[in-house]
Amino acid sequence: MINKKIFFSLLLLAAGFLSAAAQKSPQDMDRFIDALMKKMTVEEKIGQLNLPVTGEITTGQAKSSDIAAKIKRGEVGGLFNLKGVEKIRDVQKQAVEQSRLGIPLLFGMDVIHGYETMFPIPLGLSCTWDMTAIEESARIAAIEASADGISWTFSPMVDISRDPRWGRVSEGSGEDPFLGAMIAEAMVLGYQGKDMQRNDEIMACVKHFALYGAGEGGRDYNTVDMSRQRMFNEYMLPYEAAVEAGVGSVMASFNEVDGVPATANKWLMTDVLRGQWGFNGFVVTDYTGISEMIDHGIGDLQTVSARAINAGVDMDMVSEGFVSTLKKSIQEGKVSMETLNTACRRILEAKYKLGLFDNPYKYCDLKRPARDIFTKAHRDAARRIAAESFVLLKNDNVTLRPGTPAEPLLPFNPKGNIAVIGPLADSRTNMPGTWSVAAVLDRCPSLVEGLKEMTAGKANILYAKGSNLISDASYEERATMFGRSLNRDNRTDEQLLNEALTVANQSDIIIAALGESSEMSGESSSRTDLNIPDVQQNLLKELLKTGKPVVLVLFTGRPLTLTWEQEHVPAILNVWFGGSEAAYAIGDALFGYVNPGGKLTMSFPKNVGQIPLYYAHKNTGRPLAQGKWFEKFRSNYLDVDNEPLYPFGYGLSYTTFSYGDIDLSRSTIDMTGELTAAVMVTNTGTWPGSEVVQLYIRDLVGSTTRPVKELKGFQKIFLEPGQSEIVRFKIAPEMLRYYNYDLQLVAEPGEFEVMIGTNSRDVKSARFTLK
Ligand code: NOJ
Question: According to its UniProt record, which protein family does this protein belong to (predicted)?
Answer without folding.
Answer: Belongs to the glycosyl hydrolase 3 family.
